[in-house]
Amino acid sequence: MNNELPLVYAVTLNWNRPDDTCKCVDSLLSQEQVLMKIIIVDNGSNDHSVKIFSERYGNKVQIIQLSRNYGFATGINYGIRYALDQKAEYILIINNDAMLETDSLKNMIEVLKHNIDVNVVAPVIFEYPDTKKVWSTGGYINNLLLEPLDAHHRSENLSNFQLVRRTFISGCIMLFTRSLLTEVGLFDERFFMYYEDLDLCYRIVAKGYQLAISTSAKGYHRVSASSGGKVNPFERYHMARSSGIYFRKYARGIRWIPVLFFRFASWLKMTFVLLFSGKLKELQCFYRGLFDGWIKNIV
Asked: Packing angle between helix 18-29 and helix 49-57, nearest 10 degrees?
């Protein structure tokens, strides 16, 4: 083992999707010029996922088996805490429906090493299998509305850049320094899924840390594979619920006016989209999520 190579703990979360997770892990094992420690957190799968991972990878991976599906934030935090307990200097989180090019992690670490003000870095993420279509290059959080209006900046031309500073990067693939997570904290476990990455990015920026996209690193994402598709009852419920948790957490005073105005327009648009496309179950779950996130448990 070459002790001069950087040691990275990579954390991914599985829930009944062993095929996707294996492709993700295989891409991590193929990373060049880094030492990999891979942690698979199994979020209460009721299939043969854990057996598949054990037989395929043996001691190449550490499996943390949870008793039920705790959602993304809680599940991934189990893996991050384990990595921190092992004194990890770099921690990568990656969706199990995502993959990395073989030299991407090395290039991302180089960004952190040579830009001391940058403490979180992500690759340019392309859609899979359409690997020429950009899915995310991060974005900028609007200070008035508290969210990125273009959370993925898909159309931006990055050909002339090597490093692009952002205030938001997708939680699909993020590489952290240990010092940042120790200072800022982990994902807020009130979010089952969605908005947890925006919440963490907001806290990172508030602490004065920098986030960046490395255009020399490439990732690939099977969009919405882990949630069962782009629009379904489960996805609509948690997107609506998490929005309430996030905006109730940060909107204060007069800032509530633009936030509520913008969110109401968004709710109205989604209502009409779901109603006129005949997705009545999705619409019902959407409004149940709005109630649970925005109104329920208000003291």
From this structure: 30
Tell me: the pLDDT tens digits for 6-24? 999 999 999 999 999 999 9
C-alpha R_g of the chain? 19
**In Å, what is the CA distance from 225 to each residue of 33, 128, 136, 230, 264?**
30, 10, 16, 8, 28
Average pLDDT over residues 87-96: 97
Q: Which two tokens stand for residue 90?
A: 């770099």
CA distances from 26 to 100, 101, 144, 211, 212 (A): 9, 11, 42, 27, 25
DSSP 191: -
| Cα–Cα distance measured from residue 43 to residue 263, given in angstroms and rounded to the nearest whole number | 31
Mean pLDDT of 74-98: 97
pLDDT of residue 299: 44
For residue 135, the tally of other CB atoms under 10 A from its CB is: 20
β strands within the chain, DSSP E: 7-14, 35-42, 61-65, 90-94, 98-100, 118-127, 134-136, 163-166, 173-177, 210-221
Q: Which are the contacts of 184, defined by CB distance < 8 A and separation ≥ 6?
A: 200, 203, 204, 207, 209
- Residue 73's SS3 state is helix
Which two three-digit tokens encode residue 179?
Answer: 């010092």
Whether the per-residue pLDDT at 214 is higher than 70: the answer is yes
